[in-house]
Design a protein that fits this description.
This protein has 14 helices and 22 strands. With about 525 residues, the protein is an alpha/beta fold. It has 3 domains: about 180 residues, Rossmann fold; about 200 residues, HUPs (Rossmann fold), CATH 3.40.50; about 90 residues, GMP Synthetase, Chain A, domain 3 (2-Layer Sandwich), CATH 3.30.300. Strand 20 and strand 21 form a beta hairpin. The site of xanthosine-5'-monophosphate has 13 residues, from loops.
Length: about 525
């Protein structure tokens, strides 16, 4: 198991449920302080064994009065480690230390005004007396515990933030980790740098040197294989391993013919040029398009693509293993681009190998007899991009939008054929080029371009009537793809994309914009 070298003592983020812990951990890292997430079932002893610099208790869905509410162990507050309680964590801290938490029946949800009270600014230092913050709570702290100063209140919450500077204990009722809290990052940084006295001395630059050492140690002189998908994670993982063990690594790229325009070349030409990696390419377009013939059902498509991918990868691996046999060195390790969210979501990933399971199409079977090398296990996506850039990977690879393993196969609604793939590739290339030309790549999380191959409608193009297919543009904004909103891109950009697609792509006479959030709509159409 590869872990980040213990050079960094972490700030521990205790996950009290809901989805806040990952965001908090990211914000702490944005402040250049290393953070790790632990479940609320982690005992004080287990937490202290990690030698934390500070602890943040996250929000969560429970009331401190609920019988199953995550408990905070009393002795945590006596451990001498600075602690920040957020929302539920704030209430749990108040409750544990003798304050009063009331079920007032008054909920505060969404954007809320808070006002500073008292003389001490503490973790609100440098923020205005009145500020907008994001709230989501039912219970309310009515009275702070002895020794705590009240820092802020709202119309319905007398104690919205408190501090006990001497003990290094702090709390806020709101969510400083969400962007809707105007000075949220400032409050978090005040806790880290003032409250806990930390230094901002962690960044992704450290990761490369540490991981190179860890990989060398793990792999020794064995051979390693890495499947490249064209995506960011596998490219960065492969590049790191290449830097660590060079010639011992062979990357395998199964070109299933379902990638977007220019993406196979990015792997075969640009990635190799940037890294000097040994690459084996399996050209398998015909195999995949052949296997998809006559299939419209999305689940079936995913199964077929997944099955063929595994077969193709195994064939490639057998070939490489046979070569390896001659040199006497078997392939012992498989590189996986597992990221920190995958590790957290699968319960911390202690021990057992964690093959990406959420979207397992394009993943590998669990019975491959390899030990895993997972150099990105401690990183969030944006950190992976930073590491990739530092390793010299081209911007087109590290800045690439998330793209599903089954590729354009699930962005054609209806049967997948070579002609339809070409058509969608053209439309997608136009949309991407215009987005980039408008300087708005950063404005979206991703923008799937979808071909409704089963739908036709009437149009007038040139001199005649046409009966063509619609293309759907699905630009979304998101932080983690679990939820998303449709991106309000400028209409003139939408107009340019629409004009170009209907003019340049034969068979398309209509472009529509998807204005659905997730939920209820997923990001991909399928
Ligand atoms: P949905 O459509 O579920 O997608 O809202 C959430 C995110 O996951 C991506 N996605 C996939 N990624 N293999 C992948 O590696 C897949 O089969 C797959 N299906 C969806 C999608 O692009 C979005 O970022």
């Amino acid at each position: 198991m590869t872990e980040l070298a213990p050079a960094h003592r972490p700030v521990l983020v205790v996950d009290n449920g809901a989805q806040y812990a990952q965001l908090i951990a990211r914000r702490v890292r944005e402040a250049n302080v290393y953070s790790e997430i632990v479940p609320h079932t982690c005992s004080t002893e287990q937490m202290l064994a990690k030698n934390p610099l500070a602890i943040i208790l996250s929000g969560g869905p429970s009331s401190v009065y609920a019988p199953e509410a995550p408990g905070v162990q009393q002795d945590l507050f006596d451990a001498g480690v600075p602690i920040l309680g957020i929302c539920y964590g704030f209430q749990a801290m108040a409750n544990s230390l003798g304050g009063t938490v009331a079920q007032t029946g008054l909920r505060e949800y969404g954007s809320t005004d808070v006002s500073s009270v008292g003389n001490s600014r503490s973790i609100l230092d440098g923020t205005p007396d009145h500020q907008k913050v994001w709230m989501s709570h039912g219970d309310t702290v009515q009275q702070a515990p002895d020794g705590f100063e009240v820092l802020a209140s709202t119309v319905s919450t007398p104690v919205a933030a408190f501090a006990n500077e001497a003990k290094g204990l702090f709390g806020v009722q709101w969510h400083p980790e969400v962007k809707h809290s105007d000075f949220g990052q400032q409050v978090l940084e005040n806790f880290l740098f003032r409250g806990a006295g930390l230094e901002p001395n962690w960044d992704t630059g450290n990761v490369i040197d540490e991981q190179v050492a860890v990989i060398r140690e793990q792999v020794g002189d064995a051979r390693v294989i890495c499947g490249l998908s064209g995506g960011v994670d596998s490219a960065v993982a492969g590049a790191l391993v290449q830097k660590a063990v060079g010639e011992q690594l062979t990357c395998v790229f199964v070109d299933h013919g379902l990638l977007r325009q220019g993406e196979a070349e990015q792997v075969e030409r640009d990635f190799v040029a940037a890294t000097g990696v040994k690459l084996y390419v399996a050209h398998e377009t015909e195999r995949f398009v052949g296997a998809l013939e006559g299939v419209s059902d999305p689940e079936q498509k995913r199964k077929i693509i997944g099955r063929e991918f595994i077969r193709a990868f195994e064939e490639a691996e057998r070939k490489l293993a046979a070569e390896a046999g001659a040199e006497g060195k078997p392939i012992k390790f498989l590189v996986q681009g597992t990221l920190y969210p995958d590790v957290v979501e699968s319960g911390g990933g202690e021990g057992a190998a964690n093959i990406k399971s959420h979207h397992n199409v394009g993943g590998l079977p669990e019975d491959l007899q390899f030990e895993l090398v997972e150099p990105l296990r401690a990183l969030f996506k944006d950190e992976v991009r930073a590491v990739g850039a530092e390793l010299g990977l081209p911007h087109e690879i590290v800045g690439r939008q998330p793209f599903p393993g089954p590729g354009l196969g699930i962005r054609i609604i209806g049967e997948v054929t070579s002609e339809r793939l070409d058509l969608l590739r053209q439309a997608d290339a136009i949309a991407r080029a215009e987005l980039t030309a408008a300087g708005l790549d950063g404005a979206v999380w991703q923008m799937p371009v979808v071909l409704l191959a089963d739908v036709r409608s009437v149009g007038v193009q040139g001199d005649g009537r046409t009966y063509g297919h619609p293309i759907v543009l699905r630009p979304v904004s998101s932080e983690d793809a679990m939820t998303a909103d449709w991106s309000r891109l400028p209409y003139d950009l939408m107009a340019r994309i629409s004009n170009r697609i209907t003019n340049e792509v034969d068979g398309v006479n209509r472009v529509v914009l998807d204005v659905t959030s997730k939920p209820p709509g997923t990001i991909e159409w399928e």
